[in-house]
Design goal:
Chain lengths: 111, 111
């Protein structure tokens, strides 16, 4: 079975630009969560979606938004990029919250 | 706020020895705990999980121990191999909510 997939793998953006990251969960998983991982630290929770509804939001500014589609895939959008948004963005899927399986991540570099 | 922390940032072990990675958590209401392995440039890989109604769970070469009295979690890896070299994170969750990660422990295996 295919695992969690994310696109793109790498991305370079300029300050002030907008970015959209995409995630496809494991087949049969209805919950998708997004995490930001800064180099040398553990992942930080951004959003959790279940059955297309937002279930939780971490301590991130309103520049961060997300949505989940009917096929359970998800997008993370970040507006007005700052240098500090440079990080590895991870998507995790699960059937209903427990046992979250992560994708390979999208490495975002903001210059 | 609530957080998960690790005692040792780096653990060096000889190939074939057993490894023990420790983790302290602070939220007594957490009911679910996971260990992840993260290799350089990759997303976290699920290793083993445990729910708060258990104090021990075994997998293939790995054992997780949970001590709720002192809010302590440990991961034991038997017969450590070079392929076990990675950063290990523990994470906690409450009611299938977001995962809260610690900063990680780097495991180095030398011949």
């Amino acid at each position: 079975d295919a695992g969690v997939t994310q696109s793109p793998t790498h991305l370079i953006k300029t300050r002030g630009q907008h970015v959209t990251l995409r995630c496809s969960p494991i087949s049969g998983h209805k919950s998708v969560s997004w995490y930001q991982q800064v180099l040398g630290q553990g992942p930080q929770f951004i959003f959790q979606y279940y059955e297309k509804e937002e279930r939780g939001r971490g301590n991130f500014p309103d520049r961060f938004s997300a949505r989940q589609f009917p096929n359970y895939s998800s997008e993370l959008n970040v507006n007005a990029l700052l240098l500090g948004d440079s990080a590895l963005y991870l998507c995790a899927s699960s059937r209903a919250g427990y046992e979250q399986y992560f994708g390979p991540g999208t490495r975002l570099t903001v210059t | 706020g609530e957080s998960v922390g690790l005692h040792l940032p780096t653990l060096s072990v000889q190939e074939g020895d057993n490894s023990i990675i420790n983790c302290a958590y602070s939220n007594s209401a957490s009911d679910y705990f996971i260990w992840y392995k993260q290799e350089s440039g990759k997303g976290p890989q699920f290793i083993i999980d445990i729910r708060s109604n258990m104090d021990k769970r075994q997998g293939q070469r790995v054992t997780v121990l949970l001590n709720k009295t002192v809010k302590h979690l440990s991961l034991q890896i038997a017969a450590t191999q070079p392929g076990d070299s990675a950063v290990y994170f523990c994470a906690e969750s409450q009611n299938t909510d977001k995962l809260i990660f610690g900063t990680g422990t780097r495991l180095q295996v030398f011949p």
